[in-house]
Amino acid sequence: MLEVDGVLLVDKPCGPTSHDIVNRIRRTFKIEKVGHGGTLDPNATGLLLILLGKGTKLSDTLMGGDKAYTGVMHLGRVTSSQDCDGELLEEHPADAITREQVDAALKSFQGDIFQTPPMVSAIKVNGVPLYKLARKGQEVERKPRFVHIYRIGVTVWEPPLATFDVVCTKGTYVRTLAHDAGQQLGCGACLDALRRTKSGTFSVTDATPLEDLLAMDAAELVRRVIPCNRALEMLRR
User: Fold this and answer.
1) Residues of the chain whose pLDDT is less than 70?
2) Can you list the domains of the chain with their CATH numbers?
3) Is 41 a catalytic residue?
4) I want to staple 138 with a disulfide (CB 3.0 to 4.6 A). Which of 1, 108, 129, 133 is the partner?
């Protein structure tokens, strides 16, 4: 068993779940305790905080930090999950929609907002995850969440796709931002891609792609680990 304590910054690829990545690192390096500091959906990419050994005790602290994402919204499509993985429910023309209109719709969410989580999510109602109810065709009332959007705006305009950056508090559903902006615009929208670029003070620019990590030997991996005390110091910045 490899004994190592701290935080590992992983650049998650599209496809595997966050739990899959935890398991692959645990098995590859034979580390007894491995966890993560904030889930990313399977098709999302970017910064995933992997917690090793005593670092697993920092989970709640690390997950509480603000987040930054780059998202791509697809105008004219409404899906059951609010992203491209869901069932297509509606399709509308979006040719007349301008970059300025999309930017204004997104910016309308800046500040304190209440956000209703999507049915396809891991939030539990009476102990049952919403996505399990959604698979059965059930829809239940969801309690709106209070979140804060510090900054949001369009960065790339390639209609019907609009790339945008957002900085927000934990618990924000970026796909819901895309969906709600589409409703405002009247054409509908869903999230086509998502990349987490920051979590707290940690940045994806300092992260290592998963496949590169898995190809390392144990000594090289340990050199990439941020010790627990150092990780806490970085959070206080």
Assistant:
1) 119-142, 237
2) 6-64+203-235 (3.30.2350.10), 67-198 (3.30.2350.10)
3) yes
4) 133
